[in-house]
């Protein structure tokens, strides 16, 4: 699946959330606009449930929070660049400044795993991550990650 089919420009942002909880709330608020039948609280609880199983902080300042939702029919990606890195309980204990969140329909488990794997691979590219960190606008972030 092409990244531009699940990540829209309005779901790409630069922010200073301050904490893991706040960034998950931000993701939930952004997603709730895209999924009008869901509340941001429902989305937040899905993300939080996954985090309780183990942090989605994959190291090198990157996290890929994700969740499955029963009342949606299409996946949604959200890209956030934190102006100030936040503690995220990452596997390498380093703070996180790049987050790619993924929300998928509960029944699309295979697609979910393939998309997560593809995103992790892209975010494992040091050149791409360096460019993301240097980006100065949301449109630049979007263009970098979707090219």
Short description:
The chain is α/β, with parallel strands linked by helices. The protein has helices spanning 20-34, 40-53, 109-123, 126-134, 138-146; strands spanning 7-15, 57-59, 62-63, 66-69, 76-86, 96-105. Strands 1, 2, 3, 4, 5 and 6 form a 6-stranded mixed β-sheet that branches.
Any key phrases for this structure?
147 residues, alpha/beta, 6-stranded mixed sheet, globular
Structure notes:
The protein is α/β, with parallel strands linked by helices. The chain has five helices and six strands, in the order βααβββββααα. Strand 2 and strand 3 form a beta hairpin. Helix 1 (20-34) crosses helix 2. The model has no long low-confidence stretch (mean pLDDT 91).
**What is the general shape?**
globular
Main beta sheet: 6 strands, mixed
Strand fraction: 25-35%
Specify the number of helices: 5
The counted number of beta strands is 6
Rg, alpha carbons: 14 Å
Mean pLDDT: 91
Q: First CA to last CA: what distance?
A: 13 Å
Helix content: 40-55%
- Low-confidence segments: none
SSE pattern, N- to C-terminal: EHHEEEEEHHH
Structural class: alpha/beta
Provide the fold topology.
Elements: E1 7-15, H1 20-34, H2 40-53, E2 57-59, E3 62-63, E4 66-69, E5 76-86, E6 96-105, H3 109-123, H4 126-134, H5 138-146
Parallel strand pairs: 1-5, 3-6, 4-6
Antiparallel strand pairs: 2-3, 5-6
């Amino acid at each position: 699946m092409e990244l531009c089919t699940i990540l829209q420009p309005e779901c790409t942002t630069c922010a200073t959330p301050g904490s893991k909880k706040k960034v998950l709330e931000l993701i939930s608020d952004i997603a709730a606009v895209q999924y009008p039948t869901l509340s941001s609280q429902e989305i937040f609880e899905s993300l939080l449930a996954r985090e309780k199983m183990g942090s989605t902080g994959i190291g090198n300042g990157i996290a890929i929070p994700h969740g499955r939702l029963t009342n949606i029919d299409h996946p949604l990606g959200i890209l956030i660049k934190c102006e100030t890195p936040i503690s995220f309980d990452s596997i390498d204990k380093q703070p996180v400044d790049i987050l790619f969140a993924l929300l998928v329909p509960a029944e699309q488990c295979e697609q979910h795993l393939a998309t997560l794997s593809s995103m992790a691979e892209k975010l494992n590219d040091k050149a791409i991550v360096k460019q993301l960190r240097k980006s100065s606008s949301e449109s630049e972030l979007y263009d970098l990650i979707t090219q």
